[in-house]
């Protein structure tokens, strides 16, 4: 706590009493600490690829460029690290965009096939990613659905982040997307037969930069920001996300989207 004491003086300047103000600053401190950690994380995540790019460019300039096979290998590393930086910056911008913002569109989406349409826009990316890993993608969406309180772009971003994760953390088997209409919400289920998430880590995966296996996420091009983007996006429109998982069996994310 933080406290402040002010004396109450009489007309003659004698102390008659005191006003004590006590502030509970627990929440403020917690937010300050989260902000400091976030800045430290961003700096670290940006510096790692930059250091690598700088090192390889210097080595090339020092003569490695004369050896064609070395040159190509180093240029490929530089390209991969540049892509990584780009993804990170894109994710940071999305996060800043959705955080603490009202994401409800002014008009409700009343086109019955909007989930299908949102899926069509990301389908090529997901299918080619899954195909490269030999994973089946099963999408089962009803022909018509009641109106939703979500814009089409937000819905595409949501589907992309969750389906990409499902494929990213699965080495064999399948990933699926199903929709079910409830009285207040439309429930989307994103499932996979992937590596699963240890139970004690489940509450933390929506935190910014939290990754169960840092090396695995990085190797697959992850930034550790995808789920926090999804969470903020949903919070801004009255939606919810929950997860169940079993190690070595798979993971299911359920997204509840409020009906209009
Ligand atoms: P990343 O860019 O690392 O994938 P996310 O914020 O999207 O970051 O996810 C955070 C972490 O949650 C991931 O690093 C991974 O450990 C875990 N995770 C997310 N989705 C899945 C999934 N479908 N299966 C297993 N682990 C997952």
From TrEMBL:
Reaction(s) catalysed by this chain's protein: ATP + protein L-histidine = ADP + protein N-phospho-L-histidine
Keywords, ordered alphabetically: ATP-binding, Cell membrane, Kinase, Membrane, Nucleotide-binding, Phosphoprotein, Transferase, Transmembrane, Transmembrane helix, Two-component regulatory system
Protein name per Swiss-Prot or TrEMBL: histidine kinase
Primary location group: membrane
Gene Ontology annotations of biological process type: cellular response to phosphate starvation; regulation of DNA-templated transcription
Taxonomy of the source species: Bacteria, Bacillati, Bacillota, Clostridia, Eubacteriales
Cellular compartments annotated: Cell membrane; Membrane raft
One annotated GO molecular function: ATP binding
Principal EC category: transferase
Domain Histidine kinase: 41-260
Topology relative to the membrane: Multi-pass membrane protein
Domain of life: Bacteria
Organism: Desulfosporosinus fructosivorans
GO cellular component: membrane raft; plasma membrane
Ion transport found in the keyword field: no
Signal peptide residues on this chain, from the entry's feature table: none
Enzyme Commission (EC) number: 2.7.13.3
